[in-house]
Amino acid sequence: MGMPGFDYTALLPLAVDGTEYRLLFTDGVGVDRIGKKEFVTVEPQVLRLLAEEAFRDISHLLRPAHLGRLRAIMDDPNASPNDKFVAFDLLKNAAVAAGGVLPMCQDTGTAIIQGWRGRHVLSDGADAEHLSHGVYDAFRKLNLRYSQLAPLSMYEERNTGTNLPAQVELLADGDNEYKFLFMAKGGGSANKSFLYQETKALLNERSLLGFLAEKIAAIGTAACPPYHLAIVVGGTSAEYALKTAKLASAHYLDSLPISGSPGGHGFRDLNLEQQIWDLTQGLGIGAQFGGRYFCHDVRVVRLPRHGGSCPVAVAVSCSADRQALAKITAEGVFLERLETDPARFLPDTTADDLVGDVVPIDLDQSIDALRAQLSRHSVGTRLSLSGTLIVARDLAHAKMKERLDAGAGLPDYLRNHPVYYAGPAKTPQGHTSGSFGPTTAGRMDSYVEQFQKAGGSLIMLAKGNRSNAVTHSCAATGGFYLGTIGGPAARLAQDCIKKIDTVEYSELGMEAVRRIEVKDFPAFIVIDDKGNDFFAQPGPAALTLGPSRRD
Q1: What CA–CA distance (Å, rounded) separates 528 from 479?
Q2: What are the residues whose beta carbons fall under 8 Å from the beta carbon of 405, sequence distance 6 or more?
């Protein structure tokens, strides 16, 4: 058999772009003729202004399709009460964030820019610098959070204070357009990107579905579901599989072909997408606290692979589904049209319709009285918290551990109050708080046993599931872990947080220890003082929780 003739096949052949764009401006874009060719020319300020506007939009606005999926949860008679409660709160959060003051999530993310410059597009060549300057402008002017840490040595870090560096990757592709995907990726969803190095043995339906069922369930709720879940099987390299999964989670690859070919292009497997969607609905995890809506949707991409390698990549886009497409053409600069009126997706349902059996909790009683009250209720019980919380997360916990290790005790504030794992975005003028949602609880797991033995962290509040070590420590010390909804940071800031004071470690910026006063702050008992863990229950049991159960 002779060698096949050369036939170029793109790895990811996309169909014609059907995105709805809005025109931003035309200044700074022109057309020059060089010889017989026309070139689109792009001035430096164009890239800077485009990046600033893109990150402004994606910090406050969502795609209509994403909001429609939240509304579909509200309209689904088979959705659990907790599914609907989370979806309703996320829709309300979207309506608050759309005002352009409070960003939808306190973790305003790493700025990621992917660009594809056509061969007939000319710029000054410093495109990454100009785009990064636009990121700088957005984070300086808006009420966003600086989350990037510069390594000064292998072990010492310092916040850059600008949210730079941005991740900017520019490729050559196409003809006379400059295309972009702007993303803001927070730590929660970024930490739920996984690579598995597998073999040909995985490539049969039974083995693959069994493997994916295990890996998907292990994602947990720390990254704020409902998720847009992406799975990539194969890849010319491990890093390409992961990158493809990230693009698929942003729906960038929706227009891929739906079948393969001898040329080796990637394609979507619609049948496997449906199978995995059905699988996620049966997990019982739901939209954070039991139900069917662990995912909004699923994307599965099959890529070519080396015969000795079979990477499998998994990625999610969380409830802060922040991305937008853009393009520069001879006609001007265009940005994807996001939804400016998310309130139109809100149902007639009111908060009272979703209340069920909610237990009010006064946080300003003693820590022992608080624990005694919580002990009367089972895991899954829905709470409404009012009173004082201490806010501390990664860096503050590390400093307090240093104190314990040096023989000093924990500060009284960590012994006398529940601790909320969080770090706020900037506080807008005239507001009590910037966006202030929970961070991932699991990052503090290694501190819990030591802190609880020392009398601190006996009631913890954050998002996501936790390790068995935390469950065992709570059982041994009479502690509790309360979960709150991951995602509605703007609504929490507007409606629930009434006062903020810095207590210690002000030099840590957004990671300083704070004392806050809250009112009607939503939470659920996730781990109790008897060693029960809500997320360790069988899936069907979780589906029945809805309104709280009592012992």
Answers
A1: 7
A2: none
d(CA 247, CA 254): 9
Taking Cα atoms as reference points, which of 24, 118, 39, 17 lies closest to residue 332?
Answer: 24
CB atoms within 10 A of CB 204: 9
Q: What dihedral angle (degrees, nearest 10) is formed by the CA atoms of 396, 400, 406, 409?
A: 160
Q: How many CA within 13 A on the CB side of residue 527?
A: 30
Q: How far apart are CA 450 and CA 442, in angstroms?
A: 15
Listed residue (366, 478, 375) closest to 417, CA to CA = 366
Query: At how many degrees (to 10) do helices 44-60 and 127-141 cross?
Result: 40
Tell which phi-psi region holds residue 35, choosing left (phi > 0), alpha (psi between -120 and 50) or beta: left
Query: What string of pLDDT tens digits covers the 551 residues of the chain?
Result: 577 889 899 999 999 999 999 999 999 999 999 988 999 999 999 999 999 999 999 999 999 999 999 999 999 999 999 899 999 999 999 999 999 999 999 999 999 999 999 999 999 999 999 999 999 999 999 999 999 999 999 999 999 999 999 999 999 999 999 999 999 999 989 999 999 999 999 999 999 999 999 999 999 888 999 999 999 999 999 999 999 999 999 999 999 999 999 999 999 999 999 999 999 999 999 998 889 999 999 999 999 999 999 999 999 999 999 999 999 999 999 999 999 999 999 987 555 554 568 999 999 999 999 999 999 999 989 999 999 999 999 999 999 999 999 999 999 999 999 999 999 999 999 999 999 999 999 999 999 999 999 999 999 999 988 999 999 999 999 999 999 988 889 999 999 999 999 999 999 989 999 999 999 999 999 999 999 998 886 543 333 333 333 22
For 42, phi then psi, to 5°, come to: -125, 120
Domains of the chain: 15-185+321-348 (no CATH), 187-319 (no CATH), 355-543 (3.20.130.10)
Residue type, 207: S
CA 230, CA 189: separation in Å to the nearest integer?
12
Q: Are 522 and 513 in contact (CB under 8 A)?
A: no
Which helix (H) or strand (E) is 300 found in, with range? strand 295-305
Positive or negative torsion for Cα 362, 363, 364, 370 = positive
pTM check: above 0.85:
yes
Query: Are β-strands 310-317 and 194-198 bridged in parallel, bridged antiparallel, or unpaired?
Result: antiparallel
